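dude i think i finally got it to work??
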Amino acid sequence: MRIAHHTRYDDRTRRVRIAVHIDRDHAVLEAARLFWRRGYSGTSTRALVSTLGLSTSSLYAAFGSKAGLFEEAVRTYAERYREIYQQAVAENDIRTVVERILIESVHEFTQPTGTHPGCLISSAVMTDSTSTLDTSAYIAELHAENEQALLARIQRAIQDGQLVATTNAAVLTGLIQSIWHGLSARSTIDTAREDLLATAQLAHQLICQQLTPSTS
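look at this
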């Protein structure tokens, strides 16, 4: 981590203050890795400052608290899933919508560790610390918004005849979300990307075979 120390003198107090400039993106990534591996409660402030190469006071100055750093890490890496859903539901074909949500999410879950901490959402959701209630609420809102966007798109697909008329939009949405969460959970136990992609592709294939009108 790149850390620059600059000495500054305060004329009123005659005390020397040290301003610490950190590589914030790198710090958030390294912290996110710790939270992913150990969860919020299992990640101590001591472990954070040791990994980031910061003093406790510098960490607090930069992020406010351990909870503040956790929240920034979650927001940084969770927003990508909102983007995936928003881009997917804009597709014209409902089959492409489902495929993009599942396949692109798997690719996001399994990004190279050098640039990505893993699916931090699972760690965030399971935290039991009251100091991260705002973060848990954010994750709940993210999932609800993604689910609502998918539900609206499926309802439109039924109206447009892209799905059979008897399709239950709420049930299909729940199925896709359940598959998504399952893929997310499996990614946290180091399931290979190829295996997750095969599962996502099979789920997509079965959904399309069952619920899209026959072209024959």
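Residues 91 and 159 are 16 Å apart (CA to CA).
im so relieved honestly
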